Amino acid sequence: MTWIEALILGIIQGLTEFLPVSSSGHLEIVKALFGDTSVAEQSMLTTVVLHGATALSTIVVFRKDLLEIFTGLFQFKWNDETKFSLKIIISMIPAAIVGVLFEEQLDMLFDGQILLVGFMLLITGGLLLLADKAKTTNKGVSNTNAFIIGLSQAIAILPGISRSGATISTSVLLGIDRTKAARFSFLMVVPLILGKIAKDIGSGTINMENANALPLSIGFIAAFITGMLACTWMIKLVQKSKLSYFAYYCFVVGIIAIIAMYI
């Protein structure tokens, strides 16, 4: 992988991790365009680095929220921070179960399955249109809501289903306040990303010996910077009910991907 390819992949990861257009789907499409012939270990290392960058950007953007949560937790009381942390844990359950039980089957879906990506992008677009038309309320996230949103996150493991799009759309359709929906959606994924990174590194399947530091560093920095910008921008877009623009984008890219597989 060249530094230019790493830069492009980093920018795409940073933008699409937060914007509701599926980071996994776009990375698969870009890898196909590049004719990615890298071995699995190198490809996985790139994925781990880029996801680590977007996880860090989330932590930076929500640093005040995270500080309040940790401060509240260490008070060892049944306060708002403890309740919120419980909801985060509940939301992680579906994706964690799917990831553990169907790891091999899921890995097969990230092997140039562009046709699948195309159809899943169409589904993402449909979800975004529905969410954009939902009524605005001041409702918060309940434990039941957290589990349902977690189910959406589990489904979003499929390449082409936007994680942020699925979780935010589900939250809004459940009647949750748009700002709270975006905040919960972005915070709930951080433990999962960090856990997945730790699992991949600990599995021994990632070859660090032949890693090219320069492209990986460039990709990390690009993903981190664009991730912070996209995260901040996305919160404002959700508040203003501007998800339909991304829905149309998903429709266009999805249709192009499907047509490309039949040409």
Structure write-up:
- The structure is a single chain.
- It contains twelve helices and no strands.
- With 263 residues, the chain is mainly α.
- It has one domain (3-262).
- Helix 9 (163-173) runs antiparallel to helix 10.
Q: What descriptors fit this protein?
A:
263 residues; mainly alpha; globular
Explain the layout of strands and helices.
Elements: H1 3-18, H2 23-34, H3 40-61, H4 63-73, H5 80-101, H6 103-109, H7 114-132, H8 143-155, H9 163-173, H10 178-203, H11 213-239, H12 244-262
Helix pairs in contact: 1-2, 1-3, 1-11, 2-7, 3-10, 3-11, 4-5, 5-8, 5-10, 7-9, 7-12, 8-9, 9-10, 10-11
Radius of gyration: 18 Å
Structural class: mainly alpha
Low-pLDDT stretches: none
In round numbers, the mean pLDDT is 86
What fraction of residues sit in β-strands?
under 5%
How many H/I helices? 12
The N- to C-terminal Cα distance equals 27 Å
Count up the domains.
1
Count of distinct strands: 0
Tell me, briefly, the overall form. Answer: globular
**Main sheet record:** none
Fraction in helix: over 70%
Q: How would you summarize this macromolecular structure in one to three sentences?
A:
The protein is mainly alpha-helical. Helices cover 78% and strands 0% of the residues.
